[in-house]
Amino acid sequence: MKVVILGGGIAGLCMGIYLHQHDIEVIVNERQIFSAVGGHAFLMHHDGITVLNELAIESKTPLPGKPVHTFILRDAEGLIQNEKTLEDWQCFKRTDLLACLNQFLPVSRLKNNRVFSHFVYEADQIVAAAFSNGEVEYGDVFIGADGANSIVRQQLFGEVKFEPGKVKEVVGIIQHAELAESLQGRFTKFQQKDQGLSFGLIPTSATELVWFMQYDPLLADIPEAMNIRNSEQYHEQLRQLCFNLLKDFPAEVQEVLGANDFRTSYIWNTRDFDLLPGFHYQNVVLIGDAAHVALPFTSAGTTNAMLDAKTLSHCLLNYTDLNDSFLAYYQLRAESIKAHVNLGRALRDSFLDPTSIGVIPLISNVLK
């Protein structure tokens, strides 16, 4: 059996590593050459960390990630409203995790500069994936891991109906050794009590922090006409948006904004879609954001992508019939995915219309 994976992000790489560990011929196809520059960070709980340890079992490469042992919720004046001990959570910078995963696969299994174009059919059966550079990869099984805007998914199921997340998020990274040292091991979030506005801060190293601002765009926003990431006007509008919305937040928030280079920041328009009726068509199957997208409040996106890879690889190895393996994969993952979509929407609604403080946007002790 030869497996062709379309997309070399976290989901695609995890899938490729699992199959390679079990001597399955696999090719991971990625649209660009990986570069460990920039990128945001995310939280990962026990399930995702377990997968990462399984992937690294045959490697001496040190794993990335910084332990996060405490979540602290403060109000917009800086007063602590809630504090929670986190069991087995870590913060990962996306580029660090990708760099690590890339080392777990032989170079011969990774193909860059391959933008998926379409499937090649013979006698109404999918036999190959064609790429925009003219290259073609034949295989027996094809796995779509090409993200939320998946071309594979579109070709299998048509356009999905994305539901607007109603919340936007600005993400940035700063170097600030003093502040990073004082916040080690802690995820700190400042939340306004009466409207949808928050600011989060997580150290990713001894000197670096990732920050985010979640906001209701009805409060203020950048006009769509100006939302061109590479323009100086956009960067200045983004800086003004953050400073204006967060003007009443504590001094450490102002310090972070003052140290931030807004040329490396961006606005993320959150969104999701309902659970698909299935994740496969013929010999093609979806994983990660290509299969499902949940809102960021659950902090579960990356973990779910890694669990998809683990579950699907297990099904492919344990079922002789390909269709049975895909059906089993969907049955094992669908309920959890649907629950995370619903949880994300509930947390979003609470964020936009807070009737009380203390809503913790983490899945710990909520879903497993």
From TrEMBL:
It comes from the Bacteria. Keywords: Monooxygenase, Oxidoreductase. Coiled coil: none annotated. The keyword Oxidoreductase applies. SUPFAM superfamilies: FAD/NAD(P)-binding domain. InterPro entries: FAD-bd, FAD/NAD-bd_sf, MOase. Transmembrane segments: none annotated. GO terms for molecular function: FAD binding; monooxygenase activity. The keyword Lipid biosynthesis does not apply. This is 2-polyprenyl-6-methoxyphenol hydroxylase-like FAD-dependent oxidoreductase. It comes from Pedobacter cryoconitis. The lineage of its organism: Bacteria, Pseudomonadati, Bacteroidota, Sphingobacteriia, Sphingobacteriales.
